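Q: Fold this one first, please.
A: Sequence and structure below.
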Amino acid sequence: MIPDIEKASTSDIKAFQNEQLKLLLNYLNTHSAFYKRLFKTHNIDINTINSLEDLAVIPTTSKEDLQNYNDDFICVPRKEIIDYVTTSGTIGEPVTFALTDSDLKRLAYNEAISFACAGINQDDVIQLMTTIDRRFMAGLAYFLGARELGAGIIRVGNGIPELQWDSIIKFKPTYIIAVPSFLLKLIEYAHKHDIDLNTSGIKGAICIGEPLREQDFSLNTLSQKIKEKWDIELFSTYASTEMNTAFTECEQQQGGHHHPELIIIEILDDDNQPVAQGEAGELTISTLGVEGMPLLRFKTGDIVKAHNSKCDCGRNTLRLGPVIGRKKQMIKYKGTTLYPPAMHNILNDFTKVESYIIEISHNNINTDEILIKIGTSDPSDDLLQEIKDHFRAKLRVLPKIEFNDKKEIRKLQFPKMSRKPMLVIDKRK
């Protein structure tokens, strides 16, 4: 199930996106109060924008724009809105997105081709280990995508290893969708209850919310720990509510594939100029085919690299590498630039580190400070020293590290109304 446009030549894909861009601009100029105002304020004649390169004349859209003018982005009457979702609010206030019936069909198509990308087909059964309620777009997308693909789906929701294993044993799913660190909890439960992981029938896991790979696509520490115990394929998928689109790995596992029929992407530097090929920059997106709340040149805040070589799977679309970090969570610490994922990878190397939270703040001279709070059943000076040595070796700097009560860390990780664990608290202004 590879759409024809994804097998087309690079020039044909670009020509297709040029035409889709014109449709998007006309739609926004007709229906979006925010973008009509933007075009008028900056004297932009959309009829002069005929290619992806011409996008550079249009100012980018920020998360702050969405927060400050949320309703001005909605392009349809209220009666046409079928579903309301909100962003997770990881950075700043959550934003509401309104979806029409057409948007839900687009969401289903997006997830169906994403599942197919990872090798899932109509003969498979998928166990969903994320919430489908609480205004969460991803859980709904997975359910709709499975139905579009014709695969079966078991809606268990997040957490509760006992219920997850009961469902696996009863219904025999072939794939699961989960946060990777939760797979470690499933492994732990299986070992305690004499469940044979490798005869469970699970072929693979679609993993969300946490990176699986290093920048060269080798397995990171978290993935290695999973694979050492459970012989299943791990597929990374990257998406956001704002994008209404997913970038999912194929069976080659060399980055998340771009779906050019659904989204235009740019990777920009701090001056909003395209980075050189192979360089890291901020992913900036324009959504195609969205009715309720389409976006133009929206800066996601995620720092990524694009890979343009043709993939052995037959798709000719570019691929996004693992997210390096969120731009707003970049830390300047003792002369070194850090992103939280680098610290996640180090902490995941320790079996005794059962939970943690990274707090970023400013000190009295307004420079960045890092405090890592660790929950463990076996705190000791030796463990603390081992963790510190690992940080010095891997990152060349040592943040402040302390042991904390596991219950307190869990409260920090799951604040009220949270839909997924929060591993970073940024207290900087």
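Q: Good. Now the second chain.
A: Here it is, same layout.
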Amino acid sequence: MAYLVEVERVFRARQGLPSPVLAARGGPRLGAGEDIEVVLRAGVSFDDEQLTERGWYCDTDELTGRLERWTHILGDGPWTVRFPFRPTFELVARHLFHALQPEVPQLAYVELVDRTYGSRTRYGPRVSG
């Protein structure tokens, strides 16, 4: 049997990209400097055999700390200034996965949830929903 442990942090972010699809539908647009509520979530997968004698594999406190550091980075100014690439949720999720993967054994995915507009983007080798 397998486990999936998830940790999440909620923060405010300014992506900085316009939404031409939303605008074409007459939907609301973010004004300059407006932010959205985002959830950064990471999942770690492991098997029964990997449990320690204390009954756990993933140190959720350590993972929470790593995500907290990223939420400070992601919440500090527009993403269009923060990243050298076009900061779509897809590309930022991929960037975060590759940044965390060397530090988090058996990282299953990284997910960004846009709570303001209702979308979820998950990236990882074992993506499932």
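Q: Anything worth noting on the second one?
A: The mean pLDDT is 88.
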